[in-house]
Amino acid sequence: MPPMSAGPPGGLYGMITVISHMSMSLDGYVAGPDQSQEQPIGLGGLALHQWHFDPVHPADVPWQDQLLDRGDAYIMGRNMFGPGRGPWQGDWRGWWGDEPPYHTPVFVLTHYAREPVEMAGGTTFFFVTDGFDSALKQASNAAGDGVVDVAGGASTVRQALASGALDELVVDIAPVVLGRGESMFRDLTELGLTQVESRTHRTSPTSGTGSHPLPPGDRDPHPGPTRSDLPAATNASTTRVSWRTSGPAQVRGWPAGRNAPPSPGDARPGMGEYPCRRRRPDRVRP
User: Fold this and answer.
1) I want to staple 32 with a disulfide (CB 3.0 to 4.6 A). Which of 44, 149, 235, 272 is the partner?
2) pTM listed for this prediction
3) Which CATH number applies to 17-251?
4) Are strands 147-152 and 117-118 parallel, antiparallel or unpaired?
């Protein structure tokens, strides 16, 4: 497994380690514009994740293996969980089928309450209406002394950075320009990052990683400076950077000391124990 940073474990929440691993375009977007059920990562956004699709570059294999295997609990935003906005409608249960790949509790930030959704394989989605700090506390309780993984999307990672709870941020910078989209660094100032590691590897035009900014059929219809349907890159490079964070960031436009937007929801009662928490037999913590 790729190593975590060499720093001491844990931060604001004792021995819990809080991490996030995101893929980002050259111009700083972790998702494209116009997210929908047909385009869950936005127009052009799928290209950011080509590094862990087959065929995989040898340098990416260990990172692909651990991508959904480090977390003992996960936090994600409503936009990552599904395409819906506003009050819940129907029985949407995520993008991942009957057995999502998490196999642990997943805490979904939302403005609208919903009963937990238990899935096959140990994943249960809990819906948190009282903000990121509450989700982090609940995820930390579920993870024990393990790892809480902030899975995304942009707004959720931004709140993690603003809270100062994130211990390590790993970013795969893909050779893709989206022009517009969702940024996890938007409006953040005074963000303390210490680089732990940086690696760049070249890929051939036929390797599948960095060879095409967009897969076939995923062309961005927006013309001009927002185009993301760039020609195939020759010997494109993917750069992976690991940073250790040092304290909360300030958010432009928010009062000093505020690290999260006001929550529109009331606090939910405590959830107690998480019986769905179980480690996959083949999971080995790095």
Assistant:
1) 44
2) 0.73
3) 3.40.430.10
4) unpaired
Amino acid occupying residue 280:
R
For residue 186, what are the contacts with CB-CB under 8 A and spacing of at least 6? 154, 158
Main-chain dihedrals φ then ψ at residue 173, nearest 5 degrees: -95, 105
What are the extents of the domains in the chain?
Answer: 17-251
209 vs 27, 170, 244, CA distance in Å?
18, 18, 26
State whether the Cα torsion 102-105-108-114 is positive or negative.
positive
What's the helix, strand, coil split of the chain in %, to 5?
A: 15, 20, 60
Q: State the chain's mean pLDDT as an integer.
A: 74
* Model confidence pLDDT, tens digit, residues 235-285: 456 787 888 887 777 676 555 444 444 333 323 223 233 333 333 334 433
The answer to whether the Cα torsion of 116, 78, 158, 152 is positive or negative is positive
Q: What is the pLDDT of residue 201?
A: 65
Q: Taking residues 18-23, report their average pLDDT.
A: 93
Helices 132-143 and 154-163, packing angle to 10 deg:
80
